[in-house]
Write a structure and sequence with these properties.
By secondary structure, the chain is an alpha/beta fold. It has one domain (10-182): Alpha-Beta Complex (YbaK protein), CATH 3.90.960. It contains 5 helices and 12 strands. The chain has helices at residues 34-42, 58-65, 98-105, 114-121, 165-172; strands spanning 10-14, 20-24, 48-49, 72-80, 85-91, 94-96, 109-111, 137-141, 151-152, 159-160, 175-177, 180-182. The strands form 4 sheets. Strands 4, 5, 7, 8, 9 and 11 form a 6-stranded mixed sheet that branches. A two-stranded antiparallel ribbon has the order 1-2. It is globular and about 35 Å long. The model is unreliable at 1-30 (pLDDT under 50).
Length: 183
């Protein structure tokens, strides 16, 4: 299903891409974690919410929101050889370039496990939100800067937050970097 579907408690929202999507607010049920909602409220942003499990990959999120795969801001947690964790936020159609990553953080890194990801970010893989994460350096890749609007997850595998690249940098407090290559 590509377009939004009417549901009780849903209200239409026009995304910056000109597509209509639904921001779901169900009385008594908060899908977006409170810590993420607080950040959204503080920055006057609103998450698009969909059926649970509908946006866990860049491809599925892009199809569900109705945008290019590259507009999905995927968040990838890495663990460096120095023991530190790094959260790379990159365009959904890009792959990490290990050489560039090592040049940027100064050490080799590996993908964090699902358990490490949830422990360090508070989010499960497929719904990692790049803001409201403490103790993890956030790196925002320039691959996202080619789009007017990008969509990071809002802490669930059924969400996306329309924002500009500059807003993403500001909200995450992230460092601009160039650590990806085309797939």
């Amino acid at each position: 299903m590509n377009g939004p579907r009417e549901r009780p408690g849903a209200r239409p929202v026009v995304s910056w891409a000109g597509e209509q999507a639904l921001a779901v607010r169900r009385p008594g049920i908060a899908m977006i974690p409170p810590s993420v909602q607080a950040v959204l409220d503080a920055h006057d942003l609103e998450a698009l919410e969909f059926e649970p499990g509908s946006t866990p990959t860049s491809e599925l999120a892009a199809a569900r929101i109705g945008v290019a795969v590259g507009q999905i801001a995927k968040s990838i947690l890495l663990k460096g050889k120095d023991g530190r964790f790094y959260l790379v936020v990159a365009a959904g159609d890009q792959r990490l370039d290990n050489r560039r990553l090592k040049e940027t953080i100064g050490v080799k890194a590996r993908m964090a496990t699902a358990e490490e990801t949830e422990r360090e970010t508070g989010f499960r893989p497929g719904g990692v939100c790049p803001f409201g994460v403490d103790g993890v350096e956030v790196l925002v890749d320039v691959s996202l800067d080619r789009y007017d609007v990008v969509y990071p997850a809002a802490g669930t595998d059924a969400s996306g937050v329309p924002m500009t690249f500059e807003q993403l940098l500001a909200v995450t407090g992230g460092r601009r970097c160039d650590v990806t290559r085309s797939e």
